[in-house]
Amino acid sequence: MPISFDLSDQQEALKKGARQFADTYLHDLSAQVRSTPDPLERALLARPVFEKAVEAGFLKGLIPIPFGGLASSGVDAALFVEEFASASPDFTISLAGPLIALAPVYEAGTPEQIARFVAPFLVDAGSPVAAMAYSEPGGSANFDAPPPAEGTRTTAILDGDHWVLDGEKVWASHLGGWDGSGPDIMTVVCRTPGGVSIIVVEREQLATGFSVEEVYDLPGLKGCLTSRVRFDNVRVPNSNLIGKEGQGVQLTRNAFLASGASIGTFSVAAMRQAFAAAFAFATSEKRGGPVPIIDHQAVADVLTDAKGKIEAVRLLSWRALDAVMSQHPSALEMALHAKIFGSETAVAVINDLVKIVGVEAYNPSFPILRYLADATAYPIIEGSNTGVRRRQMHDVMRTVGWDPLAASGMA
């Protein structure tokens, strides 16, 4: 089967449309976010733009075609995520909530559950949001640890035909929704008598016993509405259990495949913007010398190395997202490489580009440190590289019969 890296006419149109939307709305939104000190106020600035993205069909672009959306391939998703994240990664993370929150529903939901839980995101108006309530205060790297370890501490106990949820969740964007009353759909990782399980909570079920404890003022991704929330006897119908009790560990791991792979694309977006800033500086600034600093070999070497790494991570991320969307056997390994290699590379590349700019990078009007602040989040969100992702890769390599050439198709 021939392989082509040229974008199709449809993909070119998707890229152009996403870039036009970013130019029209997201750059201005990013500037407003930077100038707004209150974390809740600045996060809410995104809502009118969110509604524009829904109208333009970009939210549907995150829902796979078999479930009523427009997402046809991982490369398509990567194209518009890169364009959006280059302008406003925090907005893009908020929009992409269904990418992870609905993954367990796609995998193990009944036809009735799929129809009910996906429906809010197949609209052409409004600002529906979804959240995967996974992380907890105190850390969640060992969420699947069996007793006597704590593992997942949020509990769900069956009382008649309802689950009663108690516990705290944190870090996922839009856990509190736009108004503190919760998102349209929240996929909760919790401990039931049968083990770690997945229960979907709908917004109306959060009317009693749900509260936002704190809204975080993040050092990067400052427009993300990130909070710590609490469940106190929140009652959810038994029919909202996804799959079976105890199936939550595998469903949770699989849910993070797409989001992990997408971190590679977010990393590309950050590097792309940092490179553009450093390149413009290097080609225009002499810094007191006779020629622009790009004429110096040391500067040119940094730019050359950075550009190569950007291209490498972009192609790796396309491959990873394509494998996840098509459910290819290489999906797990490729997603892990995109997450680990992509995020670690972004931090290193942007840090090197900062050195080209020098002390001018500390000028608040120069943007490059903003991209570094965003990039430092990528090794630790969507499963931290040290606590989770490298351990997963270790498990892959320890699998009996693992072939190091298989994921690339070269076995």
Task: Provide structural commentary.
With 411 residues, the protein is an alpha+beta fold. 48% of the residues lie in helices and 14% in strands. It has 13 helices and eight strands. It has helices at residues 9-34, 39-44, 46-55, 74-87, 89-95, 97-101, 103-108, 111-118, 248-284, 297-325, 331-357, 368-375, 385-398; strands at 130-133, 155-159, 162-173, 185-192, 195-202, 210-215, 226-237, 241-242. The strands form two sheets. A four-stranded mixed beta sheet has the order 1-4-5-8. The longest helix is centred in the middle third of the chain and has 37 residues, at 248-284. The chain is globular.
Kindly report the spatial arrangement of strands forming the biggest sheet: 1-4-5-8
Q: Work out the helix count.
A: 13
Assembly state? single chain
Please describe the biggest sheet, giving its number of strands, its sense, and whether it closes into a barrel. 4 strands, mixed
Shape by Cα distribution: globular
Helix content: 40-55%
Give the low-pLDDT segments. Answer: none
Question: What class do helices, strands and sheet pairing give?
Answer: alpha+beta
**What is the number of beta strands?**
8
- The first-to-last residue Cα distance is 16 Å
